[in-house]
Design goal:
- Helix content is about 85%, strand content about 0%.
- By secondary structure, the chain is mainly alpha-helical.
- Keywords: Membrane, Transmembrane, Transmembrane helix, Transport.
- Belongs to the binding-protein-dependent transport system permease family.
Length: about 220
Amino acid sequence: MSLVQWDWVARHGGEIGAQLGQHVLLTGLALGFGLLIAFPLALAAVRWPRFYGPSLGLTGILFTVPSLALFILLIPFTGLSIATSLIGLTIYTLLILFRNIVEGLRGVPADVSEAAKALGYSRGRRLVQVELPIALPVIMAGVRIAAVTTIGMVTVTALIGQGGLGQLFITGFTLHFTTPLLVGFVLSIALAVSVDLLLAGLLWWLTPWQRGRAT
């Protein structure tokens, strides 16, 4: 007997597509919210170095909380909702994003920042036009890691009814049926690889000077 029953896949194609769409949505929103939180934290840590240790410690502690336990703690406040999934998923992006943003900004040569300052660049203009472009490869490395990690984490939220492709794993385990398990497995890996390649391509497009250096 074939491991994949294609007739089942055909009958449930719409449902599988919806679950894939939810998986992409949850991943994108978690990364977006994670960046909105991690970026100002990182800026503060670079500006005031004493802030780095406590911020790293807090995001590190949150990262080590078991995912299922975190979702259970959130359910009394947010219920079995997409908000519960997003809060948990966003929390798990913070350590990776915060650390890479800080390291990227710290890696900007001091003489480059001083030269921009001497040219009359304001602090905000230096950040946007000088420091962030130089730090972008390190920052994007963190975004790529966070994205792939989040894609894997989304499947866990199926336990609260918001798990995208994770719903296929639950169906497979419940029915002792390999087809949804394999479909969920393959689509999860394909999604992670596709997103990673997409982000790598975005970095390549945003940093033309890196292309010239590589050649």
